[in-house]
Queue: 2 jobs
Job 1
Amino acid sequence: MELDRLVELYRNHGYLLFTRNNLYALWDTLDLDLLQPALDPLEQVAQLQKLQERKENPTANLEIRQKQVTDTTSLRKYYVGNVTVYPDVRTDTTNGAEKVTTIRNVTVIQRSDKFKPKIFPQYIYLTRGELYRQSRYMRTMNRFNNLGTWRLVDIQQIPRDHTDTVDFVMRLTPAPKYNFTTNLEGSFSQSVISGNFVGLGINVGLQNRNF
């Protein structure tokens, strides 16, 4: 858990490619003071007492260190580059011409005209030129998933070669515009005083995801 916390901390400070493979933990159960020879009888008694205490309450020192890496890209800080959104990704994406719109540094490319490009920047928390933060990446991902407008949300992180910039490509698969649900419930009760009762309940729901 501590290694995961440190990795998340690094990724929230620009280190996009930093992973747990960059770290390792070193345990040390020895106490160097106990290994030093003591000529003074009083010091020897103190060492014996301390050794007995360590046997009763074992302790260990823990150091988390960074591994020696040959690929330094994992130690590079990245900044947000271009953000491209494909809001109408489907199995067949060959029909129709692409319509490209750029608004507030967000490029929207769609073949249909179902989505207004101006709605996307307010849900994207990745600003061009800012330091990459994994928390903002996850916040953007969760925001689009919670909207319900799209059935699948995929955000690719694409670091540029030999640079400190990472581009983001969002591929969104729309959900059906309308959601229709029905629910039928029944109940039956018996009473000596009032007799038998039968109850039926029908619930019908129609959701317009665009609304």
Note: The chain has a mean pLDDT of 87.
Job 2
Amino acid sequence: MTELTLIKDNDGIIDIQMNRPPVNALNYELVDALHQAIDLNTSNGAKGLILSGGEGIYSAGLDVKKLLEMNADEISVFFKSFWGLMAKISRSPIPIAAAITGHSPAGGAVLANFCDYRIAAKGSFKIGMNEVFVGLEVPRVIYKGFARHVGEKHATNLMIHGKLMDFDFAHDIGFIDELVEPKEVKTRALDWMKNLTQLPPSAMNRTRLNAKSEINDLFDEQLSLMSEGYAEGWFDEEVQSRMKYIAENL
């Protein structure tokens, strides 16, 4: 059976590579594997984590075809796990960098949104949170996390219209922190993490979490409500219609 995450230890900096070909679509099993990889390596004393994808793809977002097959109870379990993964990344006691190796729409962009730094590949790739396009509300914590990077004006315009961005634009407005050649994405993420983790770890990580406190407070307040709301909203007639259209045209 193929491992859903590939783990590489670079002197205490752990690269967690999503490994669900062809597009790292986020089903329950991949989300759970990411939970386990983050928990295990954090508890084992990792200095920092890198969340990466494969060549040309970071993650295509939620596995719509699989989710459409789920009943209400299964959807509830999935969204609880997926929202919990967002919160875990945001609240992580050690830094997490996103090595965005290619396309990253929807759920892929959401995970990157809560990482501490985003390094992406130069090329004709798309990234963004297009929930409105498929009939889903953008919850406040995702909006605020995105606005923290790009400002309220860009966040409002892009999210209301459900727009995806090319990587150059995402870099220009501050969502992507660095653009490098595709073969250099992981190397540059590792270099960034090495520089960061050379700082006194306690002071660095406390300051890092202070900077994210507003976002993490929102997770504390809204996590269960968001999980339940998304599970219920999934069966809305408009959402189901849009999702079925997307699944048929993938």
Note: The chain is about 55% helix and 15% strand.
